[in-house]
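cron nightly-structures :: item 1 of 1
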Amino acid sequence: MQSGREDTLEERYAIKFCFKLGKTATETYGMLQTAYGPSCMNRASVFEWHKRFKEGRESVRDDERCGRSREVRTPELIGQISNFMDTDRRVSIETVSAQFGVSVGTVHTIIHEELKMRKICAKFVPRVLSEDQKERRCNDSREMVKLINSDPQVLDALVTCDESWIYCYDPETKRQSSQWKHAGSPRPKKARQSKSTQKLMMIPFFDSTGMIYMHWVPTGQTVNKEYYVEVLREFRKRFRRKRPALFKSGQWHFHQDNAPVHNSILVMTQMGIKTVPHPPYSPDLAPCDFWLFPKLKENLRGSCYETIEEMKEAVTRVIDTLTRGLPGGLPEVVGTIFE
């Protein structure tokens, strides 16, 4: 239906006049065509206005519209939107638009250009630390820095370890499976796959010069405090044999995370190993979690091993490549993490 412009009001008066004379909508449309020619209102509009007059309408003008008023990005509006978003940082632009009666485009402009805000996803962290855990993280980090400042060679005498599952088949990540293609080439397809059920837990012990001892936990064995003590005893034997001078000097430190089995009283009392503190829930400060395991598994992803023995051989080859391929060896990696 056409709008209530001034040039259509005359025709609407004519429709009303024809209705008062008892003319039908068809007859009215024919008379308007004769009077106004090609510029006549279209048939649908003539019938609509004839129906309105038939239902008792008297006015020939359009009804008042309750749409939004002209929008102006005033300082008051910008301040109100800013305060509203401070109460809920997850609020959507559509919700803000409905709350203040302005368009989505205006809200988008205010948020991005006036308030300089952008919406981002929350960063994943292993755990949201409590205030006490944050304080302990700071204290442990300061203690480690103090230890390094007092003895710059302490990182060369640091032995670290951790546990991790290794699968006979671990699918590639989405990023690893990406490939180049031309604009007209079909998109590559990849079937969804899952990790194999065959897996084995490894416990590597290494220092700044390489791997000292690689322990494989037998299938079905639980790593409890009694079992971990036996693993540490075997590690000490290997350590004494591979690093005799360092072992004899006693000037070496042991690093592990805060897993309950690592900090059990049985382990701490029977082994008597001098350990360095590890802040709670801080894999970014653990050489195994930060460097060794991600690099190792990145090289193993996508490869399928028929047996556990094949998988062990592959792990040994990759670790050997990782420790030899670094310009400065493992000291550079360990130093980067702890410093």
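cron nightly-structures :: done
The CA atoms of residues 137 and 279 lie 5 Å apart.
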